[in-house]
Amino acid sequence: MIPGPMGQGVSCCEEVGGAWPAPAKLNLMLRVMGRRADGYHELQTVFQFIDRCDRLWFELRDDGRIGRLNDIPGVRESEDLTVRAARALQQVTGCPLGADIRCEKNLPMGGGLGGGSSDAATTLVALNRLWGTGLDHEALAEIALPLGADVPVFVRGHAAWGEGVGEYLTPVELPRSCFLVLVPRCHVSTKAVFSHPQLTRDSDPITLADFLGGDAVNDCLPIVRCEYPLVEAALEWLSGWGGGRLTGTGACVFAVFEDLDGALAACRQVPAQMQAFVAQGLNRSPLLDRLDGFDSAQ
């Protein structure tokens, strides 16, 4: 049974519509320009999606309960961003429906790929359709921001130039490069990096043209290299392939390749003790394609 308008045509615990993708992102640049009074930082960054995804399924409920069908190691249900996102959407819209959420985690936690934020965004976008709550992407992005600074870019679904804490987004078309991504076996605390006393907080702002011209500094890189030896080792290895970059606060690092063959060739030489994968850059999130497919089936 496919759900109709909110509160109609939904039976308890019915899985609707199959899997929904929650893609990873890379921060291709990250500048920290100051700390605000609320403790957050003024940033400039560039987001691009990659074709590596978590997958989520939603079983709709008519009793209003929000829960999850599988445990995420180290994450209590009350702290799970998918559960929090669903409850936030419920609260804003007054929707009487609920959902059980199942998440297949393919993205590392604490890796700077935005997995938790992407899961939250997919939950908002999917349940907005499945519950029939009818919010547009602007309204969903407003709900998304308190869940995390990266969540709005996943809701909007386009590669973007980001400012503020990451919430001011300008869609951009970027080269669809291939990336070799290394996944150090450590968890980097974003909070710890941004509270580090030696973090650069006075970078001058740049323009998109500056970035496209090669200015791709990540101000968090010196801190992470110093505090996390496994990240430093991964970056050192990537130095033989044109140099490595840090995505967000890490731990994942990446190198850029013009074509898939080059990225795959490098991946085959990654030391056995390092985890790695090859990914394609995307300017449009597969979540939007999934949404279009869902709408066309109605």
Describe it for me?
The protein has 298 residues and is of the alpha+beta class. It has two domains: 14-171, Ribosomal Protein S5, domain 2; 178-282, 2-Layer Sandwich (Alpha-Beta Plaits). It contains ten helices and eleven strands. The protein has helices at residues 81-93, 115-130, 137-144, 151-156, 190-194, 208-212, 221-227, 229-238, 260-267, 286-296, and strands spanning 14-15, 20-35, 41-61, 66-68, 98-104, 160-164, 168-171, 178-183, 245-246, 253-257, 275-282. Strands 1, 2, 3, 4, 5, 6, 7, 8, 9, 10 and 11 form an eleven-stranded mixed beta sheet that branches. A hairpin with a 3-residue loop joins strand 6 and strand 7 (168-171). Helix 1 runs parallel beside helix 2 (115-130) and helix 7 packs across helix 8 (229-238). It is globular. 43% of the residues are buried. Residues 1-16 have low confidence and may be disordered.
What's the short story on this structure?
With 298 residues, the protein is α+β, with helices and mostly antiparallel strands.
SSE inventory with pairings:
Elements: E1 14-15, E2 20-35, E3 41-61, E4 66-68, H1 81-93, E5 98-104, H2 115-130, H3 137-144, H4 151-156, E6 160-164, E7 168-171, E8 178-183, H5 190-194, H6 208-212, H7 221-227, H8 229-238, E9 245-246, E10 253-257, H9 260-267, E11 275-282, H10 286-296
Parallel strand pairs: 4-5
Antiparallel strand pairs: 1-3, 2-3, 3-5, 3-6, 3-11, 6-7, 8-10, 8-11, 9-10
Helix pairs in contact: 1-2, 2-3, 7-8
